[in-house]
Design a protein that fits this description.
Layout lengths: L1 E2 L3 E3 L2 E3 L2 E3 L2 E3 L2 E3 L2 E4 L4 E3 L2 E3 L1 E4 L4 E3 L2 E3 L22
Parallel strand pairs: 1-4, 2-5, 3-6, 4-7, 5-8, 6-9, 7-10, 8-11, 9-12
Length: 86
């Protein structure tokens, strides 16, 4: 999976991924994950192999393991507020 010049809001599950875009959500790959220098990731990463170029940004936890990655935990979605009566 190649994600270029995009904005992704949601989780990504793939065998392999190459990202140079903004992703808000968790990423899980069973193979190589490549974060290019313009990648901005806000979420957790689980991969069997990881390559990060200088200047890529990551805000989250990283697990690199040869075992099969689990499906990422969905990112939290805001709960609509209930109007109060006065």
């Amino acid at each position: 999976m190649y994600i270029y010049e995009s904005t992704v809001v949601g989780d990504i599950v793939s065998q392999r991924a190459e990202i140079d875009s903004a992703v808000t959500g968790n990423i899980a790959t069973s193979g190589l994950l490549i974060l290019r220098k313009s990648a901005v990731i806000k979420g957790n990463i689980t991969a069997s192999s990881l390559s990060v170029e200088e200047n890529a940004l990551l805000e989250g936890q990283v697990i690199v393991s040869r075992s099969k990655p689990t499906t990422p935990t969905p990112t939290s979605t805001p709960t609509p507020s209930t109007p109060t009566q006065e």
